[in-house]
Specification:
Belongs to the small heat shock protein (HSP20) family. This protein is α+β, with helices and mostly antiparallel strands and about 210 residues long. It folds into three domains: about 40 residues; about 90 residues, Sandwich (Immunoglobulin-like), CATH 2.60.40.790; about 45 residues, no CATH class. The chain is built from four helices and eight strands; from the N terminus they run ααβββββααβββ. The protein starts with a helix and ends in a 24-residue tail after the last strand.
Length: about 210
């Protein structure tokens, strides 16, 4: 009798594990536990440095409407970016800002070290993160010390942002300047009101002082 009850219990447990409602409940509990660990400082959210999935971010922006000059001005926060790292394009009624911010050598080494550690033993790394303890267990397989990220908040990798622009805007209508880590892009609110003869295509889409 106990054997039948045991088999019945095993079957019911298997059914429960595949039940969508049970899976959602488990996911809610896991999310709650992760939130608790983050608030307690035992878990930090970091962007996984996976070379197959490049890091991406959206730069912060202020958008200003200037009725005096009949222009719209977008100011992007892009410290550490050079003019050669940014591209501006007009596509399907949108101004597209794209580029890449590369990490400094010290950060790059630490990211590569973390990537190697996670790739070697992802299950152990996941268990350590869930326990709130990211102790380095790589000494047995790699005795030489490697750089590690004690804190990782800066955003690196490819970035992009799209802003709707008025119909008729051309790339020659857009001016841009990069200075002190701030990219300022300006275009007319009403391109039809501008004289075509007065428009001089810029030699370079972005001018100004680039970050070093």
């Amino acid at each position: 009798m106990s054997s039948k009850a045991s088999r019945s219990s095993a079957l019911s447990n298997a059914d429960m594990a595949t039940n969508p409602m049970f899976q959602r409940a488990v996911e809610r509990v896991a999310n709650f536990k992760c939130a608790q660990a983050i608030r307690a400082g035992r878990l930090r959210l970091v962007q996984e440095p996976n070379p197959a999935l490049p890091m991406r971010f959206t730069p912060r922006m202020d958008l200003v409407d200037d009725p005096i000059t009949n222009t719209r001005i977008a100011i992007f926060e892009l410290p550490g970016i050079k003019t050669a790292d940014v591209t501006l394009q007009i596509q399907r009624g949108n101004l597209i800002i794209t580029g890449e911010r590369r990490p400094p050598p010290a950060v790059q080494k630490a990211l590569e070290s973390a990537r190697t550690s996670l790739a070697r033993n992802p299950v152990a790394a996941a268990n350590s993160i869930a326990a709130g303890d990211m102790a380095d267990d790589s000494e047995s397989s790699n005795p030489s010390p490697t750089p590690s990220l004690a804190f990782h908040e800066l955003r690196f990798g490819q970035f992009g942002r799209a802003i709707p622009v008025p119909e008729g805007i051309k790339e020659s209508d857009v001016t841009a300047a990069l200075q002190d880590g701030m990219l300022t892009v300006t275009w007319p609110q009403n391109p039809a009101a501008r004289s075509v003869q007065s428009v001089t295509p810029p030699v370079s889409p972005i001018t100004g002082t680039s970050a070093q």
